[in-house]
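Severity: low
Component: inverse-folding endpoint
Summary: output formatting inconsistent between runs
Steps to reproduce: submit the following structure tokens with default settings.
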């Protein structure tokens, strides 16, 4: 990433962060709709604040889903996160539902017909990225930040860390030399906690979880290990800060180590290329790196609303490629169907697999038996290798 000695930082936020609460509800509702109609359309947004959750957006579903089901799904998502606080309690908050039917102008451009294939749900650009910094082929700083918070959340929900609240953030700064992370410069963790413990106690509670995640347990210098630097974090969650769906797009992707097209993921069905093409971009970039063709790979796609095939495709291996970027572009164009329909069918995205993506990153996760995180599979490696070996692909 960097040839000079420098420091690079990424952050993550926990599932109880106000914005992540909204992402979680949006994706829980997507799973509800897609479980009833695999071809549903959803664009669901949420706002969460003191004693209130507002749900809004557009949907289309062959089966009627009533308001009670929608409200129950939202409440159960918030309950699982752990919000039973006086000012934001899963069973006591007011839930406003403002969902309505998808625009017919959008539908006519997206839906397939006798004379056209299914088109992209919007225009836009999407990026995928992979690198050899971690086993998951993700940038190290975001990988460590996610893991610290995930481990703390699991311990909290298991009752081991009941003194901590759901709201938390983590930030990891790594030292890079010659393009590789070589040391931990600093770690910052801010965690909501009960009024019964102070900053020093929170620090020692969190320390072993940080140490367990960092490579070889190498902690930063003590004065660069920051825990709740304001001194107190009792008021948190949507009561402390209003949350919105789609406001943590860098947390959701590569922690700033790669470009971002600007589109959020949560609440959107897989016809929305903001989501599905970002997943496909990661899938292709990861398989290029896993195949040994590069140390790093960025892949960009762009789409026009209502148009099936991407209008541009870029592969950039940042000077680390064993195969030319132009050849890789030609191979990808011929071997991977990057139309919305092709992506959805290849990665089997028309399933209720999205609620689990709403926290700790959409990328770098293990593929699940039920098809969750299918874009993390490395099953394209052999096909890419065969295409390179065949010699049939020339640069465009």
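Observed output (run 2 of 3):
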């Amino acid at each position: 990433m960097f040839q000079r000695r420098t420091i690079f930082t990424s952050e993550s936020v926990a599932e109880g962060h106000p914005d992540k609460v909204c992402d979680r509800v949006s994706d829980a509702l997507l799973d509800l709709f897609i479980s009833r109609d695999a071809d549903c359309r959803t664009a669901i947004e949420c706002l969460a604040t003191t004693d209130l959750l507002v749900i809004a957006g557009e949907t289309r579903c062959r089966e009627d889903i009533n308001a009670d089901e929608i409200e129950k799904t939202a409440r159960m998502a918030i309950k699982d996160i752990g919000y039973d606080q006086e000012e934001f309690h899963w069973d006591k908050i007011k839930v406003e539902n403002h969902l309505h039917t998808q625009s017919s102008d959008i539908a006519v451009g997206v839906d397939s017909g006798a004379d056209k294939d299914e088109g992209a749900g919007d225009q836009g650009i999407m990026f995928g990225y992979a690198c050899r910094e971690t086993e998951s082929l993700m940038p190290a700083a975001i990988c460590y930040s996610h893991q610290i918070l995930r481990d703390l959340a699991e311990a909290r929900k298991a009752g081991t860390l009941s003194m901590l609240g759901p709201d938390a953030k983590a930030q990891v700064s790594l030292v890079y030399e010659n393009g590789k992370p070589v040391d931990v410069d600093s770690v910052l963790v801010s965690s909501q906690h009960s009024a019964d413990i102070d900053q020093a106690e929170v620090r020692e509670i969190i320390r072993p979880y940080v140490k367990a995640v960092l490579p070889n347990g190498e902690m930063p210098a003590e004065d660069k290990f920051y825990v709740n630097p304001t001194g107190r974090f009792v008021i948190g969650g949507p009561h402390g800060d209003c949350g919105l769906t789609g406001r943590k797009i860098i947390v959701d992707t590569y922690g700033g180590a790669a470009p971002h097209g600007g589109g959020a993921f949560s609440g959107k069905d897989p016809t929305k290329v903001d989501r599905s093409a970002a997943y496909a971009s990661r899938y292709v970039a990861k398989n290029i790196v896993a195949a040994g063709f590069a140390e790093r790979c960025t892949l960009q796609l762009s789409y026009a609303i209502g148009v099936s095939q991407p209008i541009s495709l870029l592969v950039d291996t940042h000077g680390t490629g064993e195969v030319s970027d132009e050849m890789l572009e030609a191979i990808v164009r011929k071997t991977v169907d990057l139309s919305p329909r092709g992506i959805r069918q290849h990665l089997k995205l028309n399933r209720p697999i999205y609620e689990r993506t709403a926290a700790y990153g959409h990328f770098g996760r293990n593929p699940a038996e039920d098809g969750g995180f299918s874009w993390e599979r490395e099953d394209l490696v052999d096909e890419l290798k065969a295409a390179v070996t065949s010699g049939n692909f020339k640069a465009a």
